[in-house]
Amino acid sequence: MKNFVVTFARGFGTGGKVIASKLAADLGVHCYENRILTLASQMSGLDEDMFREVNEKIRAKEGAFAGLMKGLPRARKYIARNEKFVSDDTLFKYQKQIIKNLADTESCVIVGKCADYILAGRPNVVSVYIEAPRDFCIKRTMANMGVTEEVAAATIKQTDTYRAEYYKYYTHGNYWTNPINYDMTLNSERVGIDECVELIKAYMRIKGLIE
User: Fold this and answer.
1) Cα 173–chain centre separation
2) 90-94 long-range CB contacts below 8 Å, 24 or more apart?
3) 5-206 in CATH: which number?
4) How confident is the model at residue 60 (pLDDT cuts 50, 70, 90)?
5) Of 33, 136, 172, 185, whose CB has the highest number of CB atoms within 10 Å?
6) What is the pLDDT of residue 42?
7) 202/128 Cα distance (integer angstroms)
8) Region 54-69: what's the mean pLDDT?
9) Rounded distance, CA 56 to CA 160, Å?
10) pLDDT-derived band of residue 141, with 50, 70 and 90 as boundaries?
């Protein structure tokens, strides 16, 4: 069976990252998020000639980007309330290349990074957007981060604004929350975290991506 990719976009506090991780574990594949950014940051520090040489060696080896990321830490980073989106076209170029290479060479789950846009039109890709009511997201954020309701609300607002601006810039004006961008849009409060995982797997079976 051909390899598959499931991309996730999610509002902060919705449990989207947990759903992505659980899905990847159930399917026995890797879940990529911040390690893509870490690797892209390392690659963007190379000059063009050195990058071209490294890139040629990577492209000659199947699954090489995945191999490079295995040794990188799974960073857990929350966007500060005062952090603003600043574009970095060079960094995004490397992220885009890494995502395409992953999709070409292995089955995996990719969280964020405009992966749904980068891989749009591929029949082996399922794109998912996870959202939930603000009260639900605030309670989850308070519990997970150990912060007050005020801090949780501000973190959600700032992070979602950052993600929306990031998506709009790199997709040339598309809207992050537009349901047309995705195969599935799920309300994690109504559906439930584990049930979201099961629904996504059911859809993948309908698509013929898994048995």
Assistant:
1) 19
2) 90/44, 91/37, 91/40, 91/41, 91/44, 92/40, 92/170, 93/44, 94/39, 94/40, 94/43, 94/44
3) 3.40.50.300
4) very low
5) 33
6) 76
7) 13
8) 53
9) 36
10) very high
What HEC string does the chain produce? CCCCEEEEEECCCCCHHHHHHHHHHHHCCEEECHHHHHHHHHHHCCCHHHHHHHHHHHHCCCCHHHHHHHCCCCCCCCCCCCCCCCCCHHHHHHHHHHHHHHHHHCCEEEECCCHHHHCCCCCCEEEEEEECCHHHHHHHHHHHHCCCHHHHHHHHHHHHHHHHHHHHHHCCCCCCCCHHHCCEEEEHHHHCHHHHHHHHHHHHHHCCCCC
> What mean pLDDT is reported for the chain?
86
